[in-house]
Amino acid sequence: MSLEIDRRAFIASLGGVAAINLMGHEERADALEDYTLDELDKAVAQAQGQEPAQQQGYPTMAQLDAQVEARVSRRGVGNLFVPSSGEEKVKKLKPMPSNPTLKDFFDLRFAPANHVLQSATRALKTGMSEEIILACLLHDTVHSLIKVDHGWWGAQLYEPYVSEKVTFAIRYHQALRFFPDSEAGYEYPEMYYRLFGKDYEPPPYIQEAYKYVRHHKWYMEPRLVTVNDLYSFDPKAVVSVDPFVDIIGRNFKQPKEGLGHDGSPVAHMWRTIANPDSPL
Ligand SMILES: [Fe+2]
Ligand SMILES: [Fe+2]
Hints:
- This protein is mainly α and about 280 residues long.
- It has 14 helices and no strands.
- Bound molecules: fe (ii) ion (FE2) (2 copies).
């Protein structure tokens, strides 16, 4: 392989002509060698189709798969059913009121819910519609119950109580997060190289869902959930559900019997979140 030296880049890399004039003959020869070796490495990496720097150091899907039997629980299990990170055992849960509201679930089962609260706070600050703000607030809360396919699970959990647009936004944010849309301000999150593997390709049902939503008149609803989805959390940010109580009041049909006791097709899902210690 022949490697052309970019003279200007080489001179600049040494600090310019004045700096090179101060160097002895040996020193210049060494510098040239270092430069060409470095360039050679880059050229080889490019020729071999090596991954971009941002993907380096992340596991492959095969490596993640090999870790399955080193785990004590499945990766898709709901947060309420396993110890919190850094803990060895689960903690006792506070009892729920007899007719619990969405706010009760935030306070007693979804807490600390930093991720969704920070996402909704960002949506509020960036002037999103109330439906988008609500979708951001709810979009990952079903993680308490289950994480795998959480877009579909989450949409189902909320469907009887929110508008169709909010349900749509929650359901499809799961698929859209794998597909960048720089015009809308969404790039593929680097964290996904770590979570899914650097060679991850979304499965066919996710690709299909993406194709369907991409041409849907409500495309921007789930897209804006992904735009406000935060992959780097500020652990010091003080977030609470209080600023969203009015938006919940206007956009969430709270059943008077309480979530889990209204006889809706998803009441059992709410009861499971309320009582994850129930043996059967
Ligand atoms: Fe999500
Ligand atoms: Fe999220």
